[in-house]
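Subject: sequence -> structure tokens, single chain

Hey, anyone have a minute? Need the predicted structure for the following. Not urgent.
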Amino acid sequence: MARHTGSKCKLCRREGEKLYLKGDRCYSPKCAFERRSYAPGPHGRSRSFRRKTSDYGTQLREKQKARRIYGVLERQFRRYFHLAVKQTGLTGSNLLQLLERRLDNVVFRLGLATSRDQARQLVTHGHFEVNGRRARTPSMLLRPRDKVSVREASRRLDYFQDMTSTLENVTTPEWLSLDAENMHGEIVTLPAREQIDVPVREQLIVEFYSR
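Reply:
Had a minute. Here:
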């Protein structure tokens, strides 16, 4: 499956804001967006002087921003949108809720990975269990009372050994619970929109796909 393999910092610069795609590095002075906040490319500096962006362009950028934050391809993202339309309630909120319920995102939210990219890699390598069964699918959608834990064999790895002390200071969203000592998390309830701290205007995404 196709996946972006270029610089993550260029994605932030293209959207004109920090998307925190590289974990701890985004909070350090090494963050490329702090040094070059203009768009990438030879004409990046002059883009701010161009004419006003159209409504379509604004909607497109919001959709691309959400895709890049969650690391989802266009075909996947469109499928999530169609699932959100079929659910009751606001389509935009349903869409974000579906994206938050992905296994790789839950691993990231629990503090078991520093970024969604890293969480996706750890899941693919089989380091986690869902309800006691090994899971290797980052896009798995979790439900309330589902339990996510680090496999017993994986806890011996240096990465998870070093994480033991830092997990004590992790603040998880209200819809998740974390047992730091046992590296075990649980989905308490479905996330509400106010509990999802992503800089996305989901209504623009709905408008983009509703054209």
